[in-house]
Amino acid sequence: xxxxxxxxxxxxxxxxxxxxxxARRWGDIVRVWWxxxxxxxxxxxxxxxxxxIVAVAAASPASAEQLSTAKKRVADFxxxxxxxxxxxxxxxxxxxxxxxxxxxxxxxxxxxGGIMLALxxxxxxxxxxxxxxxxxxxVGMSLQPSEFLKPGxxxxxAWILSWRARDPGLPVIWYVSGFFGxxxxxxxxxxxxxxxxxxxxxxxxxxxxxxxxxxRIAGLIGAGAAGLVLAYLFYDNARHRxxxxxxxxxxxxxxxxxxxxxxxxxxxxxxxxLGIRKMSLPEAHTxxxxxxxxxxxxxxxxxxxxxxxxxxxxxxxSRLVGEDNLFALLAAAGLITQFGGxxxxxxxxxxxxxxSKGMTLPLISYGGSSTLAVCFTLGLLLAITRRNPFLAxxxxxxxxxxxxxDTSA
Length: 409
Fold this sequence. Notes:
Layout: H1 8-13, H2 22-36, H3 39-67, H4 78-97, H5 102-126, E1 128-130, E2 133-138, E3 142-143, H6 145-162, H7 172-188, H8 193-209, H9 214-234, H10 236-245, H11 254-264, H12 289-297, H13 299-318, H14 326-350, H15 369-384, H16 398-403
Antiparallel strand pairs: 1-2, 2-3
Helix pairs in contact: 3-4, 3-12, 3-13, 4-15, 5-6, 6-7, 6-8, 6-14, 6-15, 7-8, 8-14, 9-10, 11-12, 12-13, 13-14, 14-15
């Protein structure tokens, strides 16, 4: 039996290899990570985080003023200071996750998704109620399980749908559809229609990529439209938000205030901390921070933010061109759909083109668990899209990935 290369016995046998210093091993890991990471994608993420720091600094005084009372004054930059802390925590989490390989990212996504699904069952019982909704659990900070369930949902669905590459006869579409139906039902109990719609968008993109027959697409669209009609007729939260959007009520007229705020600064804006309309805008530092950007930094800056989001989504999708791993393709597509979908729903709400959904603007809005959840999502995305630039790829198409069978079976 051969002695281990690092053991004293091996030293006596003359084949001893000195242990590699820890610093050198970590240096090698970091060099491999830097070679494989998508640096453009990382730069776009950092650019949006920088915009978020400026935007929260602009919105913080308005939100602090609204929360201040005669007995207790909230510091003008309290939210800004907390946002810096959350951003640093999120950045650390994201970079740490990006060191994972695909198998590790898949296992972590499945584990977190399972835990958050379990918490979603107990949210209606022990959750905190805010603004008429029970979506949060107090764990030292307000944790919204649905935020962390979004990336877990994308990973779990990608894992299940990738079984089709091994056995095309498995009814994987029905599995993920049932999983989505369960989550949507739990979200409607909170109530949380906005996240239910976003989960539906992630599910739709992934099942389409997984090879749903085109004949069924019309049926899926029709089922979605019928679901919205039923929600309007029998679900008060949906009816109130849609009525407010159509101008039939005042309970959800924040959208109108946001639209007026975003246009108040014109093309160039009033200047940082010089905005007036933001002072009467609810949730200026979270849901409606895009409107604050419009008032103080101008519509040109708003257009720049939209371009940054578009560039990030397109960069992530372009990274999947020629991908030869079905799980990686589906998981990355689901994660970027979640991120991009949330961003553009928030922007459309601020532009008064979509009913209010209570969604934050990822990487820009203030938030604790929401910031960490977005960074968790992007950390998994960076890990899954890592690619050895010196490794030749098969370059097969999506249809070949779906129809390929395991020849080793």
